[in-house]
Amino acid sequence: MDPLRWSPSPCTSRPPSPRTPPCEMLGHVGIEAVLEQLKIKAMKMGFEFNIMVVVIAVIWLLTGQSGLGKSTMVNTLFKSKMWKSTLPGLGVPMPQTLQLQSVTHIIEENGVKLKLTVTDTPGFGDQINNDKCWDPILGYINGQYERYLQEEILITRQRHIPDTRVHCCVYFVPPTGHCLRPLDIEFLQRLCRTVNVVPVIARADSLTIEEREAFRRRIQHDLRAHCIEVYPQKCFDEDINDRILNSKIRDRIPFAVVGADQEHLVNGRCVLGRKTKWGIIEVENMAHCEFPLLRDLLIRSHLQDLKDITHNVHYENYRVFRLNQSHALPRGPGWVNLAPAPADLTATPGPWKVRWQAHDSSDEEC
User: CB pairs under 8 A, 24+ apart, for 57-66?
Assistant: First the structure.
C-alpha cells in the first residue's frame, strides 16, 4: 500500500502558542461540540470547488483519440458524467481560437454537497502562432478575482459571496518522454503566480515504467531550473507534518495518470479501466498509474488547502495589486473607491508577496 495515500492530512492541530499558556480545567465544559456545530453548518451550506483543465492540443494529434482529455479525466475524478467527450474528426471542427468553457454540477455524497465548476481550455497551443496564447486563460482567472473583489468591497455585501475563483489548474503534459516544451515553460511561469497548478503526465500508459520515471525527473528538473513553483508550494508548508506529507507529493509530481469512465470485469470485480488487446489498464490500481494520488490530492487531503491558498495568497496578491493600482484611499469604515479594472487583466502581481501569518519565519523564501 502506498504510504503517500494514507498520510495524515496537512490540516493538523498545532500546539498552543508559547505566549498563551493552556489553562487548567476543573471539569468538562463541552468545547469539542464546536466541531459538530461546524460540521452541521458546513453540511447545510455545502462546498464550492472550481477547477481548470489545460489540455495541450498535441495530445489529440499524438493519439488520434480522446483517451485522456478533459471529459475523461473529470468524469473519472468525480465518478460522474459531468462532461460529454467529443472525438475529433467526427464532423466537429477543432476550435480555431481559445474559448474557455465552464460547466457546473452539484455532486452529493453521503449528505455532503459539492458545487463543482470545471473550466476547459480547448484550442490552447493549437495555433500556428502561439504568441501570448495564455492571455485568455490568465484573463479569465484574474477576471474571477475581480468579480469576487467587486462583491467584497461593497458597503452592503452579500452574506455569502459566490466563489467563482479558480482553486486549482490541472495542467496536462503530453507524454513525449523528453522534457517540457518552451510553450509549457512560458505558460507555467505565468500561471503558477496566479493559481495553484498541478501538472500531470497524460496518457501515461503510452510510456514504459522506465520512460515514465525518466520523463518525470526531466520535468522536475525543468520546473526547478525555471523557478516554477507548482502545488504544493514548499514555502507554504506550515509545520513538520506538512513538510513530510507534501515532500512525498512533490517527489511524485507530475503524476502519471490514465483516465477511463467505463467499468470492466477483472477477476470477478468491476473496475474502472481502459481495455486494450494486452489487457485492462486499471485506473485505480497504483501498479498501473498514479490517478489515485491525483484524486486524493484534489479531493481527499488538500481540497480545503487549495481553497485556502487561493483566498489567502493568490487572491490577496490580486487584491493588493488592484487597490494599489486604484490610487484611492478609504473614505471611512467599509468604503473603498476602487477604479474599474483595466481591459487587460493578464497582468499578474509579483510572486507570492502575501504570506500567511502562520508561516514559520525559519522557512525559506519562495
Answer: 57/94, 57/123, 57/124, 57/125, 57/126, 58/125, 58/174, 59/172, 59/174, 59/202, 59/203, 60/88, 60/94, 62/174, 62/175, 62/203, 62/206, 63/203, 63/206, 64/88
Name residue 276's beta-bridge partners: 279
Query: Tens digit of pLDDT for each residue in 94-150?
Result: 454 467 888 888 888 888 888 988 888 776 666 656 677 788 899 999 999 999 999
Instruction: Please report, in angstroms and rounded to a whole number, the separation of the first and last CA atoms in the chain.
Output: 33
pLDDT of residue 182 exceeding 70, the answer is yes
CA distances to 145, 150, 159, 340 from 337, rounded to whole Å, are 17, 10, 21, 10
Q: What is the pLDDT of residues 57-71, one digit of tens each?
A: 433 333 323 334 567
Q: Is 288 helix (H, G, I), strand (E, B) or coil?
A: coil
Tell me which residue has cell 517540457: 180
